UniProtKB/TrEMBL annotation:
Keywords: Magnesium, Metal-binding
Cofactor (UniProt): Mg(2+)
SUPFAM superfamilies: Enolase C-terminal domain-like, Enolase N-terminal domain-like
Mandelate racemase/muconate lactonizing enzyme C-terminal domain residues: 147-243
Gene Ontology biological process terms in this record: amino acid catabolic process; carbohydrate catabolic process
Organism the protein comes from: Amycolatopsis acidiphila
InterPro entries: Enolase-like_C_sf (IPR036849), Enolase-like_N (IPR029017), Enolase_C-like (IPR029065), Mandel_Rmase/mucon_lact_enz_CS (IPR018110), Mandelate_racemase_C (IPR013342), Mandelate_racemase_N_dom (IPR013341), RHMD-like (IPR046945)
Identification of the protein by name: Mandelate racemase
Keyword Nucleus included in the entry's annotation: no
Length: 361
């Protein structure tokens, strides 16, 4: 297969209203700032990727980094490893972390998309797998609501899904427990219920509050404490009945390797951005396979469906609809499962009219 040659790299920032606000113990988000990246090639192939920036200011800060990348990569092969080597060398003194790491991950995803489009294969197939049905849980909404509201919203969100995720971390532990019980009681039988603390607790608080939730039918407790406190997380994983989930904040495969070595969690769920794009995900999947640890994804359901299809210990796909308004063909859920798009590339294609409407940079 001939590797396409980079002609240019463009980025646009959009701010898309969320159908359901995301209210966590850390903040409340009502709009999704998304950085859309297009890698064009001399062969006429375009590779695409996007980043959820959390804050619009972060997206604006990434735009000049992408502009720099165009000058560095023009007329060079869109080969993921070579692109990362060039970009990492350029940013050696600044460091490949934070916003720089995000831009490199988006470039990696765009390169892989371009390779798959050029090969006329879905990304999953290019990675040696086949698109397949993956159990999906709905991660939209279900923030720190009162028990009755949470129960009603959970029932709505569960329709068509194999599971839902709720957020915890209220000031009062009893309020969290009441919300979990209300949601669990309202959900149809067989629906999985995940819970995410978003790093809300100190270790001493987590010991008490997580034990209170044992036996409440939760599939996992996600990031109860600071994400990089592997020692504390390992203690919780060893003593709790409910599995502990970590991973969205793994900054590259080496961070995940350290967490696995510490026994910090029962499950892992890397983020396609923070783990290092498709290339970083492949390394992480190999680590999870070697450790025998189930691996889910964090956000980016369009690309993650391809990545999980090629993951030996694939577990759950996290579904959010934040990018749907600017996509021509959003992810669809059928029978509680998501299957990667069976067309060339990762399946990302922008609705240009919507992009123009929501564009802020």
């Amino acid at each position: 297969m001939t590797v396409p040659t980079v002609r240019g790299i463009g980025a646009r920032l959009v701010r898309v209203p969320m159908r359901r606000p995301l209210g966590t113990s850390a903040s409340r988000i009502t709009e999704a700032p998304l950085l859309l990246l297009d890698l064009t090639t001399h062969e006429g192939v375009t590779g695409r990727g996007y980043l959820f920036c959390y804050r619009e200011a972060a997206g604006h800060a990434m735009l000049p980094l992408v502009a720099e990348a165009t000058a560095l990569l023009a007329d060079s092969p869109a080969a993921p490893a070579a692109v990362r080597r060039t970009m990492a060398g350029h940013h050696r003194l600044l460091g490949v972390r934070g916003l720089v790491s995000g831009v490199l991950a988006a470039l990696d995803m765009a390169c892989w998309d371009a390779l798959a489009v050029a090969a006329e294969q879905p990304l999953a197939r290019l990675l040696g797998a086949e698109p397949r049905a993956l159990p999906a849980y709905n991660s939209n909404g279900l923030g720190l609501l009162d028990p009755a509201e949470a129960a009603d919203e959970a029932v709505e969100l569960a329709e068509g899904f194999a599971g839902v995720k709720m957020r915890l971390g209220r000031p009062d532990a009893a309020a969290d427990l009441a919300a979990v019980r209300a949601v669990r009681a309202a959900l149809p039988a067989g629906t999985a219920l995940m819970a995410d603390f978003n790093q809300a607790l100190r270790l001493d608080e987590a010991r008490q509050r997580c034990r209170m939730l044992d036996g409440e039918g939760l599939s996992w407790l996600e990031e109860p404490i600071r994400h990089d406190d592997h020692t504390g997380a390992a203690e919780l994983a060893a003593t709790l009945e409910t599995p502990v989930q970590l991973g969205e904040n793994f900054t590259g495969p080496r961070a995940m390797a350290r967490a696995l070595a510490a026994g910090a969690s029962d499950f892992v769920m890397p983020d396609a951005d923070r783990i290092g794009g498709v290339t970083g995900w492949q390394a992480a999947a190999a680590l999870a396979d070697a450790a025998g640890v189930p691996m889910s994804c964090h956000l980016y359901p369009e690309v993650s469906a391809h990545l999980l299809a090629a993951t030996p210990t694939a577990h759950w796909l996290e579904y959010v609809d934040w990018a749907d308004p600017i996509l021509i063909d959003p992810v669809t859920v059928a029978g509680g499962h998501v299957t990667a798009a069976d067309r060339p590339g990762s399946g990302l294609a922008w609705d240009e009219q919507a992009v123009a409407r929501f564009r802020v940079g």
